[in-house]
Fold this sequence. Notes:
Blueprint: E1 13-16, H1 26-53, H2 60-89, E2 93-95, H3 96-129, H4 134-137, H5 140-166, E3 175-176, H6 183-187, H7 195-227, H8 233-266, H9 272-297, H10 299-310
Parallel strand pairs: 1-3
Antiparallel strand pairs: 1-2
Helix pairs in contact: 1-2, 1-9, 1-10, 2-3, 2-9, 3-5, 3-7, 3-8, 5-7, 8-9, 9-10
Amino acid sequence: MTTLNYTVVSHTVFHLLGIPGLEDQHMWISIPFFISYITALLGNSLLIFIILTRPSLHGPMYLFLCMLVGADIVLSTSTVPQALSIFWFHAGEISLDRCITQLFFIHSTFISESGILLVMAFDRYIAICYPLRYTTVLTNSLIGKIRVGIFLRSYGTIFPIIFLLKRLTFCKNNIIPHTYCEHIGLAKYACNSIRVNIWYGFSVLILTVVLDVVLIFVSYVLILRAVFRMPSQDARHKALNTCGSHVCIIILFYGPGIFTTLTQRFGRHIPPHIHILLANVCILAPPMLNPIIYGIKTKQIQEQMVHVLFT
């Protein structure tokens, strides 16, 4: 009787294809990617500079905004340079360790941004519902603790994914039809069972992003109830106006993600390249548009931007 020994090869190098089906359009697709990335870098860097160098903008709302745009820079830098290298140089080769590092920063930064948006909703709630207690509640000490808590939550929940992926044997395929690595997109190429990966990823999503959305919704219900109880129409208008920028950012951040999830769940006949383009919109749009929205809708930032750029 002969015993056959099979050696399972686990891939340590993967190949990102970019946007399959649109390879001949990669050069043209790279143009909006490049413009969006440069706009995000310049706009967010300018916003951080203005907030940190202007004492009048050292309030809680602007410090939280500074955290948000900093996360935007990390999120876009984690993905766009890799996509551009594929589009321009066909350099889609990526090691397993680098792939895991990339998805770690993408997922953790996304959770960080969600947490920051929740804290900004809490900030608006205190400012509108308890204006006299605003400065005593949101002290610098509390802001520092909130900052640490947000990043501990994001990195702490995503860190186990490194070990969940490292335990897998990737013997099915090493061709990834995407512009960047993500958790389940990488795990599905493993020969092992990925049930733990799926359930852990689902649990993290529910306990972070979905919970944040629910709490943000509750915050704005309370804010709207307080606003419509105000006797003066001008006071109501001013209160709603202070929330305008934040509401736009919330829609911009969660909207594409929800739409992408729905198309992946129900849009089975939608071409794969559409799903990949939508996934990239989720990454590209918020970092590019956040500084523009705050620059247009927030008078204090608008004035400081004009002062920096034109004086």
